[in-house]
Amino acid sequence: MDGGTRIVTDNALAYGDVLPDGGALLGLDLGTKTIGVATCDAGWRYATAGKTIARSKFTKDCGALRAIVAERSIKGVVIGLPRNMDGSEGPRAQASRAYARNLAQSLDLPVLLWDERWSTSSAESAMIGQDMSRAKRADKIDSHAAAVILQGAIDALAGGGL
Length: 162
Description:
The structure is a single chain. The chain has 5 helices and 6 strands. It is α/β, with parallel strands linked by helices. It has a single domain (2-158), classed as 2-Layer Sandwich (Nucleotidyltransferase, domain 5). A 6-stranded mixed beta sheet has the order 1-6-5-2-3-4, with helices on both faces. The longest helix has 25 residues, at 134-158. The chain is globular and about 40 Å long. The model has no long low-confidence stretch (mean pLDDT 85).
């Protein structure tokens, strides 16, 4: 945890303490084949769906994310944590925790792990409400799920925690 920037936590209060001045955040929905990307404004008011990155080796993924971090002046990362419906954590959650640790170190940014249990269904419902076609939804679901994850986190951060 060099200078506090490499913190990886699932506690919004601890995460907020590391970023007392706010700053734009990057939200990620980690899939086995893709990474959904979203960003938010520096004041933590709204999350916006971005692109979807095809998963590859970590170094290639990190390179694509590093470019977004530089372009958007990102100060921290929020990664969806895929918990089971009963709140327990399985292999996918452990893989997300490992990815978060590696990413925090590689990007030298704090990472918040955020419960993503309902993110995909919530994103899909919103896209259906926008009358988006099934094909377009399939193409954009990961980035919209990342926006749902990020919005939940920034709502908690802006509201003072959980």
